[in-house]
Hints:
The protein contains 14 helices and 19 strands. The mean pLDDT is 92. Helix content is 40%, strand content 20%.
Amino acid sequence: MQKEHLTELAEKASAAQRIMLGFSSRKKRDILYAIADELEKNRDEVLAINATDVAAAVARGRSTGFLDRLTLTDHRFGNIIRAFRVIADSKDPIGELISRWIRPNGLEIVRKRVPIGLVGIALESRPHVIALATATCFKVNNAVMVVSDDEAKKTNEILTKSIRDGGAAFGLPADALQVFCSDDNLHNCRILTSLEGLVDVAILRGSLSFVNDLVEHAKIPVLKHSGGLCHVYVDCDRVKTGADENAPHNATSYNMVDIKMAVDIIVNSRCYEPYACNAANVVLVHKAIAEKLLPALEERAKVFGIELHGDDEILKIIPSAKPAEPEDWCTPRKDIVLTLGRVDSVEQAIARINKCGSHLSDTIVSDDDATQSLFMREVDSAAVYANASTCFTDGGEYGLGAEVGLSTDKLNARGPIGLEDLTSTKYIVFGSGQTRGEPIKWQDRT
């Protein structure tokens, strides 16, 4: 029964998307601004309704991380409204001429950017994603179909109504956004990701077990990230090559690691959005800097309530840290914990990150250009930083306006999924009567 209902919703969304193919950049801008205005008008109602969803989840004993993802604060909701306006004013990629060439036979071949079609969102407890998905998808003439759990049902309903009401004034079909919530979310998300010929791509937003299950059963292309285990690596002080020839004969010049900067980056990477997938869980420290860095990190960890775990070498410097368990190195923590490990070289750090990380967001703290370059070239992640927090892996922070999600895949989208990632391409070929060789008569075929 559910499959028939979800199929019907997808068919309605697909029909609406065909109408959207004719939307101009100006029309889409007007739609997104109108939605932003409607959300602003309904701000107090949305936040009040969301509070009831959160209260119900608290009563059911949901985890702190789950509650954080479910909650719409005034600040978060303001960012959603701002995202609609930023995306509305962003460059429209639809119709963009990617390339053009003429073949020797005179055929003119043009490659253009076009909409994907119907974008499915398989969701766990993230009501803000509905808003950000519509902002990005509508900008590139895509329809949206969201399947979510019923713990965010009331919030999803008011968001959906606001989006539809806002867009209706400028001709947005109501069926361009379909949202279905139920208490059998995994089963229904499996149906969503099986709707070949209707849903063109599905973006998976949820726990690792949720995502892995859907990947296993999907019959359509999916975009997803695998967990959220991100790393900070703190390098050592290094002798600077090519020292000033006018310096005293015995002078030694160093690239010095800024300990305060390193601690700031570590704490921000762990605590800015502690339940986000771009939050750092593991810190690898070069053995030559450990005794300078770790006492300063221990003091800051106390201020921010970060529990420290470490390997045997770390425990010698920070006896108050708890011994790290084997799963600490490869499993994202739901609580505010940093797992600290000592390494002998940047090469060893790179190997550990590539083996145990989620390949999403990793950073090095170093003042040495060659070491930074090595790290950024060799770490196989969607976003690699030098001297910056892992938490910048975000569509808004990248100037994309917003994101529908994050991807650690290597085809189509990698990192924050923005406007261009929600498009496809089409070849437009102009001829003047060209044919390809002499046709072969059927009876002459072997």
